[in-house]
Design brief:
Helix content is 40%, strand content 25%. The protein is built from 14 helices and 16 strands.
Amino acid sequence: MYKPLIEFKNVTKRFDGRTVLDRINLKIYEGHVTTIIGKSGVGKSVLLKHIIGLLTPEEGRILFRGKPIDELKKKEWDRYRSQISYMFQNNALFDSMTVFENIALPLRQTTNLRKKEIDTKVMARIEQTELSDVAQKYPSEISGGMQKRTALARALVTDPDIVLFDEPTTGQDPVRKYAILSMIAEYKRKFGFTAIIISHEIPDVLFISNRVLVLHEGQIIFQGSPEEMDSFEHPMVDEFIRSLEGLQDELTGLFSKQAFRARYNSGLNRKNKDEKITLILFTLEMDRLNENFGPTNALEIFKSLGALIKKGLSPMGFSTRLNKDQMLTVLPYVKPKEAEKMLEGFAKQLQKEKIHEIQTENRSKECFEFSVFAGLAEGKSNEEINQIIQKAQSQQKPIARFLCSKVEVPQE
């Protein structure tokens, strides 16, 4: 078992006699995206501030690589603190500084880089967060969404080893919200930092998380993977997820994962072992799209694909966004040959709807190709759905290929 990077041992924090954190025990692993979820006011931000040293516990200890942080010598503490960047929930931007100056501030305060080097790093983050048009404006002159992205760019500009994100997507529209999460996932993959996210955006943030912690009434009641959380039974978790997730996935308009599971479990004749169902698994290479067109444009393409799936296939079945790259359609009473014909018609519809226009309008200078993949599999209605999904995954092939200004439907 890997040793935790950061560990809380029986950490307790009180304010005016009220216990906010009650003997908290948790582990955060290096290189992971760890998400801490819970209702408003349960102490998520308080927990985060203990990691960075803005708060200290009344009881218990916080360990970094096995060593209590309250025992670190000044040089050790400074080294620990320099590895961590924090994106505040309220952004904490300086009104007297431009967007550019706000993002540059950590580099100017904590490094010995020359002005030209600082300017280059800052402009790179500004372009990645789509803030080029407002770089010389002040926070009061830009929207709340742009202020949030400014705070994100500032948190990442120092290339930190550990980044703490306090509600990074609050106040964003669906596309921007998913773009920010995609950006976090992309940067984590590219630079290898450890991300700790405070969020209530379920299920969106879970798509990029390796590990989930649930904070309830001052205690951690669950630690594990998003998949393990699906089978974790607790009234608070059920109520919390149900209240936030709703019936539809906010980005694609397809069923939420919770609604999809309910439909799958109740809408099929699970007792009839001979009853067959067909699944179609769709995949977009989101990491490649993010890299070539930026998170916002990549999400627009993904959103358009979801809308086409809902329009073309949902009348015969039901669909959900499975993860950040994939969508899944269940066709309960459709045989594989019939499903293949439906998929052929869907591929043609992709061409007719001109999903590639999103790409050609926003493409990079160099011509870039991407494909929509689909895999079809048949299973029994009482079979574990993940087993059928694996079959569909193994059968995936491109059903439409987009290359600059034209779209191709691959020939058999």
